[in-house]
Amino acid sequence: MAVEVDTAPQFAEFAHPERLVSGDWLEAHLDDPGLVVVESDEDVLLYETGHIEGAVKIDWHTDLNDPVERDYIDGAGFAKLLGSKGISRDSTVVIYGDKNNWWAAYALWVFTLFGHDDVRLLDGGRAKWEADGRAYTTVVPTPAPVDYPVIERDDSKIRAYKDQVIDHLGNPLIDVRSPEEFSGERTTAPAYPEEGALRAGHIPTAVNIPWARAAAEDGTFRPLAELNALYRDEAGLKNGDDIIAYCRIGERSSHTWFVLNYLVGFEGVRNYDGSWTEWGSAVRVPIVKGTEPGTLPTKK
Amino acid sequence: MTEDLPEQLEQIREDFLGLEVRERLQLLLEFSNELPELPERYREHPDLFERVEECQSPVFIFTEVDDARVVHLFAIAPREAPTTRGFASILVQGLAGLTVDEVLAVPDDYPQTIGLTEAVSPLRIRGMTALLGRAKRQVREKIAA
Q: Model pTM?
């Protein structure tokens, strides 16, 4: 009982227009049975200051990450979380958030690890919703718990582990961090807290396309022609490529994963969520400093 | 460890720990909304304020030590960053009226002890630790000057 897709003309050119909804569409469908709206932000309190009517909150730190190991929650944990939010396996889920949907895209990627079929982004996230003068409420919904099946995560298709990245070397890598992090001037995004990488630089041969270049000023995704210019012309990606994107902890690269996979339409894109906080601290992995991608190292 | 805490810091701690995790966020939001406006004399002096780089959102602090060696902490943080505002507001209220020696004696791990680590995640709480650390450093510099 999936909710109808948004047929807004600005989405039609994308490979998977069914993955995006506009503010107009969402306002018109807020009461549709089968639709659950989810807010996912960097700032853990933003939802409490006001959110879209009926939206539930899912936080990546406190909900989606395993509290002990550096991994995502398991199938039982995901089932418990989603069931408690009133999300069934066949619910249409629309996720939105702050900062160009940065964390919303991350939540969407985690939902996809569990094979949740119909999960979409609100184009432009909070910023666009607010700029359009649409309403927020501070009323927190209390959804009736539902049964969500225990589905084990499938990490094989859209997630890459460190050893898989090493085997992948020679295939396209997209580093979506800031130029300063890519070149090795610093290990964290400008103005972000130190998250403990011991070395600075990038994975050899990675091309640097900062994630936010895929977003327009208003937070919405750029048109297809501009995305093609960015990823096909500038980064040199081609159809059929096996692509891995990474950043610092896998959140910014979830945004790029969404763009490459659903908007530009590459198949076989994976997100390396270990990213720089793992690679930059790992022993005996190759690192390149400077603004150039660098050359492939001989295997140790 | 906590027996030496100044009264209002201890009170804040007890208030948070007395709540369920979810309600702790609501209290943090109340703090966020209570962050005082800057006094008139500092409104035109953004240059005095130091950016707390460890926080994910732009937050700026400035400490003043008056003739009675009482510390006054001022902070600016945007409304779109309620968590950071909340952290700053806890410290502004918690340190209010304390002397230099009392501020410097506040344990550096105070932010980890008020029950917010679970509610907002350990990574985010680091921003508050940095706020406290920078405030104390400013106080040390002021009394040395």
A: 0.90
